[in-house]
Amino acid sequence: MAQSFDDLNLPNAVVTRIAKEVLPENVSIGKEARTALAKAASVFVLYITSASNALATKNNRKTINGLDVIEAMHETDFHMFVEHLKENLEYFKKIQQEKKDAVVKQKLQKDGESNCAASNDNADENDIQ
Amino acid sequence: METSESEIIEADVTTHTENEQDENGESSENPVREAEKPEKLFKLPLSRIKHIMKMDPDTKHSTQEAAFLIAKATELFLGSLATEAYKQASQAKRKTIQKKDIDSAINCIDSLAFLEGVLE
Asked: Which residues form the Transcription factor CBF/NF-Y/archaeal histone domain (chain B) (predicted)?
């Protein structure tokens, strides 16, 4: 199992980029430290997932939702992240809704075009008459 | 060294995400990377996050929002951990963060206790 867990490390490059964003420009991160950060991040995901799941189960649910995760942040002493997470969640929901709307709009346009084509054919027939 | 862990991490998280003064009225010393476009809402691959979540034997299902929040929280966590590790490196007058700095940060801060022994 340990071997497969290593494969679940988040991409080193992305992890390093995120870490470097909070550091001064002249600071670097050693190779072992980068690996350690990636592993720590994976463990964190599991930790929060487990905490969130415990909360969902407590509420007789089998599916973890956003509120479970937010509550889990409080329970695991990472409450300082909550405000930022809530703001980002609003933005995420907005983007998801925009994507849905775009898909619906595209579908309506396609339907509209095929209806137009059909009515043009009917109009031609009327002209002939 | 007994400092307030939550204050340390909070100040660094504020600098990471927004170019605003934190609640104590102190402005960030770290340059905020505003090169990141706002459209890039999260950087960690959601598929990998979900894959790790499935490793928890008790977790069967999660909403898209939950996965997103965990991805985002992990980014914030990385920022905090990096900042704490940097403090350790600074104390040793180094500009390269080494694994032992991360280990020291884990030993110093209560909320990082879940990582003890994991990174060996």
From this structure: 43-106
Torsion of CA A20, A83, A76, A92, to 10 degrees: -80
pLDDT-derived band of residue A128, with 50, 70 and 90 as boundaries? low
Q: What is the pLDDT of residues B4-60, one digit of tens each?
A: 444 444 444 433 344 344 444 444 444 544 444 445 778 899 999 999 999 999 998
B14: number of Cβ within 10 Å: 22
Indicate the residue of A33, A49, A85 with minimum beta-carbon distance to B98. Answer: A33
- Provide φ and ψ at B58, rounded to 5°: -85, -15
Contact: A22, B98; criterion CB under 8 Å:
no
> Does ipTM come in above 0.85?
no
Are B73 and A44 in contact (CB < 8 Å)?
A: yes
- Measured in degrees and rounded to the nearest 5, phi and psi for residue A113 equal -65, -40
Tell which A residues from 49 to 88 touch B, by Cβ distance under 8 Å: 49-50, 52-54, 57, 62-66, 68-70, 73, 76-81, 84-85, 88
